Amino acid sequence: MSTWRRVHVNLRKAHGLFPVSSRRVTQPNTWKYGHLTLCKSLSTSRPLRDDFFKDLEVQLAAMRQKALDALPGSDWSPLKMDRSLPPERADVVIVGGGVIGWSIAYWIKQKERLRGGVRVVVVEKDPTYSQASTVLSAGGIRQQFSLPENICLSIASAQFMKNINEHLHVLNEDPVDLQFNHSGYLFLANEEVAHIMEENYKTQRSFGAHVSLLSATQLKEKFPWINTDGVALASYGLENEGWFDPWTLLQAFKRKALSLGAEQSIGEVTDFKYTSNIATTAEGDQVVQRRIKSVKVQVNNSLEYQPIECAIVVNAAGALSGKLAATLGILLPVEPRKRYIYVLNCPDGPGLDTPFLIDYSGVWFRREGLGGNYIAGTSPEEALEPDTSDLEVDHQFFEEKVWPHLASRVPALEKLKVTSAWAGFYDYNTFDQNAVIGLHPSINNMFFATGFSGHGLQHSPAVGRAMAELIMEGNFTSIDLSNLGFRRIIQKEPMLERNIV
Amino acid sequence: MSAPFMSLYRCCQRSALLVVSRRSLSSVSPPSSVSPPSSVSPPSSVSPPSSVSPPPLHTRFLLYLTQCFYDVEMLQSWTFLQRWKRIQKRNTYYGYTQKNYGSDIAAAYYILSLKGGLRFVGQSEWFIADRRGKFNWAFLDHKDTPLEEVNMNYTDINYRGLDNLEEQKSLRTLSLRGCPEVNDWFLARLHMFEDSLEELDISHCPRITTGGLAALRNLKGLKRLDVSSLPGISSPGVVIILLEEMLPKCDVTANGYDHTLREES
To answer: How much is the pTM?
Structure first.
């Protein structure tokens, strides 16, 4: 038998040497190719190789089917067929791979009891993050809020950033360098809003934020380049405030989460499959309770899609989270709002001690690098919100709305050059401009972490931890954020930020 | 050749390659710092200098081992964590001492147990811990005397340890030369001495960057500042000019920088 096999193999080798196919063997003019062709014709069966692999494929498919039948709850297979598709099953699906999404993924993986115990998939539409709010933000962090929840989130996030390399360190990789600028926020208030600022200051101090109040003369003494006309009071952050590089934070979260075993999948969530239950309340009202069974992920630029069976869905889609909730028929008051950031060059501008200045007119500016560059912007009025279909920059807006206020506040910025500009989306909560964090009351496995209205980046580490606590432990353990839940939207009780801007 | 010999041979072969190769093994995975699209990114005025020197041989050997054995990886991350915990523990808040002896003695005890040195207000005598951590317990006699000068050169002090010094309202000199754990967050916390501090030495601290130096603006009374040889500063020439501009009353010392204009080749 073995000798016969050897003959076969030899023939196959000979076959490979010459560009002859088996079809030619049957032709009458075989002889002109020489005796080697004659040898070839000795082989009467089809080439051995084809047979073997065809058999193997059939065998493997049968084996996979058998394993699937035997273990219906698992999509484990010895051979991964297609890695470009998302997995068929997951425990937690996080929709939105921005800084909030990756932070939640990191904290869930951090809290799991057993390595690989929880399967987390982060679905991101655009892996280049070309329109993502995370990377297009100004990157500031402040503690000067009026709601205790926001103040605590900021303090916890600053604490996280202090020890970022102990949290997000990946072995054999470079340490994370956030490029944090410890420059503080400076809020200016006029006569009308000075009392609000004083109350806010008291709240902030009581929660342990290091903020100081300055009168107009003290302000002039500290920052001689500010024109203090109309300023009654200023509050200035001393510690844990400043700005950092958003891209670095996003990549650090992503790198660490991936190293802990979270999975990334590129695609867009287009649909949900859910089951409904009708429950009756004590008063006899009928309430529909829903539970999401699977999430349909559409692969980019393709008709291919993959439903992910999952236990928990987290909506962290930022500016598009309202649209995502609408596919389930939920009214989530979060919509994209376009905000412009202008890069200014002014060699005579203020120096290294420039704070993140926020005027009571709503105009803000901060230093960018060391070469006399600054970035500035403001929020437009409610009625004049720009169109959100693209990220085009309106330069007229700077001339009319930003520059006059800026130049009157900082006279040195009268002569400046706008070197570039960009626009980004706020995940603007139209209800009360604050985050929506927690479970939806009628869909009992959909969590929200969205609607941050411009401070999502600075709160991301603490929000991720709070969400992971909610998912893994069932309630908030470190910071109680139950007031920021979905309930307030249904009960129409806004949690408004009493800030000057 | 039998299997164990073969694997040993391969191992040696690879280690030989390791010694020869100039590139660190940690850079095998693609770098994650992809900048966002240029049309939308703010222009960054400074780019950090890329360090090209390979890590020492024993680090490379450890890296090689981590890639082969999970145990080594576990061990390495464990030691990393332990090191961090040890530093945090050394910088813990001396609450018990503070309750029983007052905040000044607690601060002094903290400084001496980190092998630092200190001088009380109105005293000419220095209390300094020696190389092995031994110090003179006579500092206990100076109860309720605040500190005037503190020398923490080459110690493990970090921002957490500053809790112990929070009550020192008459601290005039603080020397932090070559402290490996002093970083930007530490400098941001120095605003607690804003009225009293006159001299500050932060030279040779490897983790200080430009972003932290901006936090020194709160130290209004500063008269002398030493920022020599900070490796984390990307463009020292500009930074020092801006620093002098920000602290006009202060005498800034900045040695150990190469200010010569290098020609682009």
So the answer is: 0.81
